[in-house]
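Side project, low priority. Logging it here so it doesn't get lost.
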Amino acid sequence: MGFLAKLHYNYKIKGTDIALYITARIGITGIKQSYKKFTDNDIFFAYQISSGINLPLSLKTSIFAGYRL
């Protein structure tokens, strides 16, 4: 189980409906491993960065392309 806090920024290109975005997430995650009598719990730092472009097709529909690291 993990928890991430998210910061999201949209930049709308002037004169169009096209929007660029960048998102950063930071937090912690943990794992529990067990094998027969042995168990191990670990907590790790977690992050995620993504960016992309949003192209609206209509008022309710849009296409987006992005990359997540």
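Brief comment: The radius of gyration is 19 Å.
Revisit when time allows.
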